[in-house]
Amino acid sequence: LGIYPGGDLAYDSLLENGQKLTGIASLGWKLDSYGELAVTTDFDYEEMGRSLYFAGNQEMETYVNITISASPTRLLSMPSLQEKSIQQIVGTLEEWGLKGVLIDIAYVPGEEQDQLFDFVGKLTRQLQQDGLQANLALPWNANIDYVAASRSVDHLILKYALDSDGAKPGPLEPLPQVEAMIQDITSNLSADKVILSISTGGIQWSRTGVPTPLSHREILELAARQGASVRWDTESKTPYFQYGAGEEVWFENRYSLKYKIDLVEKYNLGGLAL
After folding, report:
1. How far apart are CA 157 and CA 140, in angstroms?
2. Taken in order 234, 235, 239, 242, is the CA torsion positive or negative?
3. pTM
4. What is the rounded average pLDDT of the residues 25-52?
């Protein structure tokens, strides 16, 4: 599954690598606290249309990626808003001719988990009546009830989340921690319901400790401009380089990704999301 951001570079990559994907989840939609579904400010209808048209011709499964960036408190407390929101999502799938939805929970849910997963479950049941799918992306956190989350959807997309507390230069997804995450979650639910999400880019760490995400192409261009030598961290199985006065970049390449892709087969996971 490719998480598709849109834009010319992403479209070029889709044309080049589309045959390697079984599906794409297009970014560009968000759900607010009131359950209103809206597109992001940089959404380009024409560009999204051409990418989904190509994906459909390649017989890829196409999903709308809907981000929930904070707890939708009003939505979760009012059944009428939930029904309205579900109808908006169903209407969007029909309008674009998509196969399903990927709900991306871009925060760590707390006490509202039961209500949140109940809402997602209602959406899933509605979509399944029409032969459509619902998938849920969650960050890794010990406080999340992944068993309850998995019951509410077709697949659970698991993201290793970099700890932002006391953040310092280092790998985004160190292999030992990613494997420990997989071992923990598959001990409680069926492995084929879990899709492992991994990054294809990296993080630039400035001297002030502020991390900036970069694409793989941006990282290679930066290393070339700076004449930096790429090193390999044996513990995390991750490449990195240093330059200037304390600048560091940790990223993924074909070798680090191969280690993580092997985990999908090792633990019989349901798939991989890039």
Report:
1. 10
2. negative
3. 0.92
4. 91
